[in-house]
Amino acid sequence: MRGRSAEEFGAKATHARATRRRAPARATRMPSTAGYMAAAAAVSVAVFFALWWLLRAGEDEAPWLPAGLAAGFVMLIAAAAREVVMRRAWARYTREME
Length: 98
Known about the structure:
Helix 2 runs antiparallel to helix 3. The protein has helices at about 5-20, 35-55, 65-95. Helix content is about 75%, strand content about 0%. By secondary structure, the chain is an all-alpha fold. It is rod-shaped and about 95 Å long.
């Protein structure tokens, strides 16, 4: 049986490396807006009812007003935080695509 010379072995190894397919790059995923806002809405509803219950127990005349304002503030902060996260994710995505 004839063995392969170093040149033959090197040529085949180089050819194998050249024809081997590259593994696809890891797909960049954007954060989910629907999931984030659903979680923010759930937290907002929980804040509303917790505050409403506390104010109602304290004999407040209109407990829904401050509870609603607090829940709206939670949603406002969540939307602002989401905007910051999306801007960073978009900047990272465009950097990777260049």
